[in-house]
What we know:
Elements (H helix, E strand, L loop, with lengths): L3 E5 L5 H4 L2 H15 L6 E7 L6 H8 L7 H4 L2 E6 L2 H14 L4 E6 L4 H11 L5 E6 L23 H17 L9 E2 L9 E6 L26 H15 L6 E3 L8 E3 L10 E4 L5 E6 L3 E7 L4 E7 L1 H5 L2 H13 L7 E4 L12 H10 L4 E2 L7 E2 L1 H11 L7 E2 L1 H4 L19 H4 L6 E7 L2
Parallel strand pairs: 1-2, 1-4, 2-3, 4-5, 8-11, 9-10, 14-17
Antiparallel strand pairs: 6-7, 7-18, 10-13, 11-18, 12-13, 12-14, 15-16
Amino acid sequence: MVEAVLIDLFSLPPNLQNNIQGLLRNTLETIEKRSSIPAPFVYIMCHQRQKNETNGEEESLFPSLSDFQSLKKRLEVVHSLTTAAALYTIKQRLDEKDLSIIKVILPTLRKGLMKVYIDHLFTAVYQFEFEDLQVASDCENLQIAEPRSEGQALPPQDVALIQSEIQMYLESLPSLKGDLTILRSSLIPDDIFLHGFTTRMGGISYIPTLSSCNLFSSSKRRDPQVVVKENLRRLANAAGFNPETFHRVKIDHANAVCVMGKTEPDSYDGIVTDQKGVTIGAPGADCIPVLFADPVRKACGAAHSGWKGTLLGVSMATVNAMVSEYGCNVKDILVVLGPSVGPCCYKLPHESAKEFHRIDPTCVRQFDSASPYIDIRRATRILLESGGIRPENIQDDSVTDQNQNITFCTACHPDKFYSHFRDGNNFGTQIGFISIKD
């Protein structure tokens, strides 16, 4: 069942401009006749010419709005200077109401353009269907330009213009939840490495569980890749790295490691480099973003260590890649554990907890319960130390700094961090990042 209807009047062909009232009345009558109870939400997208003309234009659109009683309280006109701005505003309205099934009614000539905008501003969470804007009875004899064939793609230059329009609009949006904040470790020498861990502040993501500096997009979440890219651009500007040479792990919850400059695996949870000007990163939203730095050989790494990756030894796999690829000495490698869920909050089924108990009984609390509390940080430290990393070269602030400089519990701090455990499936993601300075 259609939950919302979007009527695109943003850029009507000139021969339909004078009949906008007839077009709209015809369309609203059709929506009202078809809709079940309750009626769908209706959004009308219009071009904003002058701010002082907006109210008058809206009134001219609805000379008899009282005729559409079932739609009246669910109807909104969105005036914007660009299609990107209008569509993103409507997306916010949809997300506020958790709506996902949308019918778009639009001139045939706009369909190809609209699909490109939707592909960039929405994810697979949303379902769209398209319907041609029906010409009202008093303008049926007007000639409409020949439409582009259904399967014909827009020229690359048109797609590039749309991408540029979207990017410019997103760059103009204010940051939410305060200034962008980067947590840095005193263990990693800042004269050699640029590094940090993000918090949830300072981006443009507006959905509560993703707000505001979400740095990961997927088909299952409502934050599109263009928004994540804009959040990353703001982070890069604040931190001082080039977002175009940023590489993050492709999560598989396992222990594969990508070596920059070699063939990239399809998926991996660790990444290493000795290239200057390249920034590497690993996400975390309860899972640990782990950073590695060798100031002697000037090499670095990043890993995503969830409970599965921890058990599979992804952190030592990253260390071993640095040793084998760059000749690092394991005793020179510095390791920092970023914000992640702590043993105060994180539970696993008893069968999974047994694996952590085998690493060390102190990694599990309330072991005899059905869902014991798990300390994935402690397990990571134990595995690193058994692999040759010096204890003093591992920063885990839940142990090394009780003031909690970096290794906060993500689930305990909703104001600072995202948490899958706390927020459910539509969760945001922070990252740890590192690069070698020129």
